[in-house]
Amino acid sequence: MRILILFASLLAIVPNSVLASVLAIDYGADYIKASLMKPGVPFDVLLNKDSKRKIQSSVAFKRGDRLFGQDAAYLATRFPSDTFSHLKYLTAAPIDSDPVKYFTKISAVDVKPSSRSTTNVTRSDGTEWSSEELVAMQLAYIKHLGELVAGEKVRDVIITVPAYYTQFERDAVADAVEISGLRLLALINDGTAIAVNYAMSRTFAKPEIHVIYDVGASGIRATVAEFSTNTDAKTGATGNQITTLGYGYDRTVGGIEIDRRLREILADAFNTKHKGKDIRKDKRGMAKLWKEAQRVKMILSANNEAMSQVESLAWDLDFKSKVKRSTLEAACADLEPKFTQPLYDALASAGLELSNITTVILAGGASRTPMIQNAVKQAVPADQISFNVNADEAAVLGAALHGASISRQFKTKNIKITDILVHDVQASYFAASSTPNSRPRSISTTLFPAGSKVGTKKTMTFKRKDDFIINFDYKKEPVPGFPTRMLEVEIAGVADALTNLTDSGAIDPVIKATVTLSESGFISVSNAFAYGEIKDDSLTGKLKGLFGGSSSNEESDSTEDIPPRNTVSASASATSSSSSDAATPSESAASDKDEKKKEKEKKKVTGPVEIPLTVTPQFTTIPPMSVEQKKAARDRLRAVDAEENAKSRREEARNTFESYLYRLRDLISDEDKDKPFKKCSQASEREAIEKLLEESFEWLNDRGDLAETSQLLNKRIALETLEKPIIHRYQEIEAFPQALNNSQMWNWHTRMFLTDARQNITEEAKLDLPSKWTKEELDGLEKSLREHEAWLSEWVEKQKSVKSNEDPVIETREMKARAKVLEQHLQRLYNRKVPKSVKKKKVVVEEKKNESKVEQEGEEEEPLQYDGEEQVPLGEGEARPHDEL
Ligand SMILES: *[C@@H]1O[C@H](CO)[C@@H](O)[C@H](O)[C@H]1NC(C)=O
Ligand SMILES: *[C@@H]1O[C@H](CO)[C@@H](O)[C@H](O)[C@H]1NC(C)=O
Ligand SMILES: *[C@@H]1O[C@H](CO)[C@@H](O)[C@H](O)[C@H]1NC(C)=O
Ligand SMILES: *[C@@H]1O[C@H](CO)[C@@H](O)[C@H](O)[C@H]1NC(C)=O
Ligand SMILES: *[C@@H]1O[C@H](CO)[C@@H](O)[C@H](O)[C@H]1NC(C)=O
Ligand SMILES: *[C@@H]1O[C@H](CO)[C@@H](O)[C@H](O)[C@H]1NC(C)=O
Bias regions of kind Acidic residues — which residues (predicted)? Predict the structure, then answer.
């Protein structure tokens, strides 16, 4: 409710644009939180079908069923190898990396190395799945929940990621998004998203610095952020600015590690009680203990001790043990310094001290754990600790607002973000050797040091003659077991381009490459080109510049907010910077200067010239999924969806068939002679139905579970075919009186009309007035009428002797059709307008010549309408022609 009132004013519709909803997802190791931004829909977190505000990050397979959320997580106690939780640890992770080692400690799932150097999981049916695919299933499930709320398709999504995520992990998240059928608007660091949430409802009279201390399930993230409120000098509009200044983190502690240690305590307790048995060898038992550990941890948050109790934990043995909070705390004693270290690291990286900070804002589900709160309380004075955001939901709500603002489809509260990079990234390449025999020298430069602003570009300048490769590396191993090499980019077409530039008279052309650090934290080479300036002045100045060299990096702001994930763009956007490392002093440049001079004199073109080069990214360590792999994964997910749909159709067909059988059995066994089914059926028909009915029951019981949808359908059709004549008879009996009434009524109308009309034309003839009809026309109608009357009386007579369990000799459908013919004939004449007396003869002549022409003229008059009355279609209603006649 509070949220609703608060944000109503933050979200306004931008007029005249097609609006689409924006989904925000906070994909945690334990829980997913999601939110939908759509004008007209209250801004809140998405609820799952059980109205839960947070959804367990789990997917499980149980025979043909796929389960999500809590349903999936609970299945772990029965199908531990087919229940996939905590997949966040597997994000882009090589099999021998720390996150995967940790995953295998807490999960019963089998892991295997994938061909992409990441880790696959295996289902009990032997099929292998990438974590991207399994995460994509969950994202698709969230998408579906969002669509239920939005009432329309949802495509755009913004996802929170820990700031410490490497490019590998960011790619894996983006791949999962694509596989799920969503479109990634942006990734946002989760601490930054919380900062957005904090800034949503606040203005800052003077700049304030806060630390967002986010204790999640799988890690602790500390974000130092500066908040200020600025007024636009031109428009006078105010907006908030969030600038992140530093980060600290620990990827090994969080809620899950405490759960794990508590489970160890419970497992030890069991093993101590039952000597010779090791609960750790029992996957189901361990899954049950995991669930129990989570429950006991909750109790211990508020109590000093808890009773742990699991019925039939394993080997039919019940488990019961008292756990003290102090026992858990002792087991976590070594974690205590880790609980606060990220805070100090973040401050240090921002160059600040605790005294510079207004508050430390606690967030994240695990921030409620007393152990962690106590650690923070010891490090931070009480008046500097703030609980001003919703620990669970701040990140997703902040992300949603940011997503809406960058989608540019909504007018949202103006909150600008300036975020920074967490890991040092260096670029390196081999310098061209100055002499043929010297060994190439490797040159490295920290292109984007930690703390670099995201959403910027840098231009690197090279003196090269041939194609070359730029390597991008993390300066340090970003996660134990992860590679440092992020990307290799080949720049090709150099020699050709340089020749052309030189031919055009450019002196000392160079190669420039633009490296983009996107808002979402992706590094890519967006373009490269050969660059030269053609000038009339002497070479001397140019050459000086060339050999002098410089190595300054300059940043240029970019408004890019769609992650250019290693895409290659051909457009050469001009950036004003250079990172030239003159490591390649080229002697040969000078040797042909005379020639160049001549060239230059020939051509009159002056100014800078750029020739685009080919940029090819290569991934030698953990490649993101290729387009083909993503397509295959999406097809695979679709196949699962299709299978599930087929299954639910099959179940529906089975249920429909079964209830049909029961209904039919009721009809058959009802002895009441007056019931329509009895009345309209013959004994032989009932016997045939009964026989097939019993067979069908038997078939359904024996083979219904395995039956195809089409078989179920055909079985039902076979029975319906037998039942159909009986139903038909009954329907005909019901419909007959109405049909007869209708036929008779049109007879009567026609007769009345004819009497009246004949009288009128006779009178008109006497007075030499024009008539609407000729005698012939009226005779024609009379003929139709007689035929209809004759047919009706003949068949009605025959029908009288037909028994209720015999097929009717006259169908009501035919009666209606015949009455319709008569009705139309009558209408045609009835609607005729009085011809003008001058035209009279002509009309009559034409009528004689060509009857169809007359009919057309008749139809040109408004048909089925009586003058001065509301238009009512003629038929069975009350407003019929006879009322007027
Ligand atoms: C891993 O999973 C992917 C995606 O499902 C699959 O294509 C691949 O064959 C699996 N195994 C290996 C060794 O990569
Ligand atoms: C941070 O606090 C220290 C000591 O209190 C002070 O010297 C320093 O100027 C402050 N820095 C900033 C950026 O406010
Ligand atoms: C160089 O110039 C030639 C001829 O004008 C042209 O065909 C070729 O595409 C150019 N190469 C590059 C790399 O621009
Ligand atoms: C025939 O229709 C008229 C007018 O709708 C109605 O008054 C009359 O009761 C009907 N008769 C039968 C037998 O349905
Ligand atoms: C016959 O003439 C009378 C008087 O003009 C008129 O009210 C009536 O509608 C006419 N009948 C037909 C069938 O046109
Ligand atoms: C009669 O009418 C039909 C259809 O309007 C037309 O094709 C035909 O030529 C007409 N015949 C004469 C004799 O006018």
Answer: 857-870
Question: Taking a C-beta distance cutoff of 8 angstroms, is the pair 169, 522 a contact?
Answer: no
Are both 521 and 607 inside the same structural domain? yes
Q: Which ligand lies nearest to the CA atom of residue 504 in the structure? A: 3
Q: Where in the sequence is the domain holding 875, given as residue range(s)? A: 838-883
- Pair (813, 874) in one structural domain: no
Q: State the total domains in the chain.
A: 4
Tokens 């995953």, located at residue: 103
Shared domain for 856 and 709, answered yes or no, is: no
Looking up residue 402, the CATH number of its domain turns out to be 3.30.420.40
Nearest atom of ligand 6 to the alpha carbon of 856: 5
Is 133 touching ligand 1 by the criterion CB < 6 Å? Answer: yes
The residue type of 252 is: T
- 793 and 851 fall within a common domain: no
Q: Which residue has the higher pLDDT, 559 or 449?
A: 449
Q: What is the pLDDT of residues 360-380, one digit of tens each?
A: 999 999 999 999 999 999 999
Residues 824 and 851 reside in one and the same domain: no
8 A C-beta contact, residue 225 and residue 346:
no
Atom of ligand 6 nearest to the CA of 852: 2
CA of 779 to the centre of ligand 5 (A): 18
Pocket of ligand 3 (CB under 6 A): 493, 496-497, 500, 611
CB 120 near ligand 1, within 6 Å = yes
Is residue 354 situated within a structural domain?
no
* pLDDT tens track for 393-452: 999 999 999 999 888 777 788 899 999 999 999 999 987 766 777 777 888 999 999 999
Would you say residue 375 lies in a domain? no
CA of 497 to the centre of ligand 3 (A): 7
Q: How far, in Å, from the CA of 596 to the mean position of ligand 4?
A: 108
Phi, psi at 707, each rounded to 5°: -65, 145
Q: Are residues 546 and 676 in the same domain?
A: no
> Mind spelling out the 3-state secondary structure of 812-833?
HHHHHHHHHHHHHHHHHHHCCC
Alpha carbons 443 and 428: distance in angstroms, whole number: 5
Give the distance (Å) from ligand 1 centre to CA of residue 169: 18
The answer on 14 and 125 residing in a single domain is yes
Would 41 be classed as within a structural domain?
Answer: yes
Count how many Cα atoms sit within 13 Å of the Cα of residue 855 in the half-sphere of its side chain.
Answer: 6
Query: How far, in whole angstroms, is CA 349 from its chain's centroid?
Result: 37
Shared domain check, 133 and 46: yes
